[in-house]
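Apologies for my clumsy wording, but can you show me some protein sequence, whichever is easiest, together with the matching structure tokens, please?
=====
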Amino acid sequence: MQESIVTIGMLAGGLGLFLLAVNMITDGLKLAAGNELRDMLRKWTSTPIRGIVSGISITAIVQSSSAVTVATIGFVNAGLITLYQSLGVVYGANIGTTMTGWLVAVVGFNVKIEMLALPLIGIGMFLRITGGDTRRAPIGIALAGFGLFFIGIDVLKDAFAGLTTAIDLQRITVEGISGILLFVGIGFLMTLLTQSSSAAIAITLTAASGGVVGPYAAAGMVIGANVGTTSTAVLSVIGATPNAKRVAAAHVIFNVATGVVALLLLPLMFGMAKSTGELFGLIGIPVVTLALFHTTFNILGVLLMLPFTDRLTRILEQKFTSLEEVEGRPKYLDKNVAVSPALALSALAMELSHLGSIARRMSEAVISQEERVGNKIKSDRRAISKLVLAIGSFVSHLERSTMPKDIAGELPKVLRTSQYYLMTSELAMEIAVHQESIGEITNEVLLKRLSQFKAMVVQLLDGTDVQTEGFSVTDCNARVQELDASYDELKAFILEIGTASEIDIGDMSAILEQNSNIRRLVKQMVKAARYLSGLFDLAGIVKEPETAPIAVNQ
């Protein structure tokens, strides 16, 4: 009894060490990579083949296909890569994650703790302590994680050695398809519970090495773990944006299809993996055969899915277009983009641009008198308020995580920009309310000059769209100076005709206040555009080509 408790404790401890190690490796390398990860994905995903190579490389390094998939979801959400580009990364991540099996099979069972694992932990923690805010610190965390990785494997190996005599799962290993399906389910369940296919694969390989399960049963568990890794992506997109759900759906489709093919061809593929191992002199080593089997069926899955990438993209783009895309809900922000500070900043910039487009549309409609205080204006005002709250909440959550100083320094600017847009909407509401209090104006000259002033304002507001290729902060500043001059001239004229009793004094005061609010609104929009332009440049977001030149004056 006591021996069983010790064995269970070793299993739990070994699994805990392994999961801690994978998290340290993933987080450390993600922080060390910084913007390079974003740039690599953007530059190396122009075609599915290049996306596959990127997915393999990044996943092999960070040792977590789930982390790469969730990060990819965030990249699509932030507008850095398209859904089509993301599919290649998803395919590649499934091949890259098989590197865990090879680490366990080739290194994990042969490494001497005192020769490799412990020195890695020592060197890693030295770099972490002495690294400060430099890149050495996260690299040190990753190195220490690799050391813990091998210690976790060693503990699991010893635990399963103790289970060999107590548990005999091999009795149901070769009892037809039902036995294989049972072990597929076990592999799936292990991944679901640990939220790590790497952990499930490590447990499977150590169990097979210790003789607790037979090779065929272990192969079924590997297939189940490969399908089970989709649970992380599915859980991460609950309540997320449509783009996030599309990438997660692609991940599920690929892994399920690959798992079905691997099951149907299990005898053939497992036999080929075994023969290949024997060809290299690896006879009677089940962990190597299983690692080779894992890699082989994922490569086969990619080869089968690659020709259908275009069609799959078109199908997915037609799905999940529901209430999530209505205004007032974030289009680019959800928990997936928070996996990388650089990615989160890009998503915030895109969300601010979305917020600005609503504020600009609302302002132009009010100033041009297309809308008074109707349902549409009120709806826009509520949408802007909700988006500002969502952005503030996201920034607050982001500030609690570790991030580079340059990105942390941009977060106050994000909040400031959102407040400028909020103030714009409040001023637009005031303008709409005051418009209803102004009586009928009969002075033809005043009507003409007011019309010219408002037309100038609308054109200036059009020029605050940061996403257009022709946007220029210098141009905006010059237009504001022109607007100020026009405002002063119009104000002097209104005071003049008011003094001459050519306009009602009450109307004169209301018009002056109206024009003052309009000028304040414009300046809020221009300030927001200045900050947002800087965020776009820092995030590296490509601006859209301008469809038509923007005139300054009529």
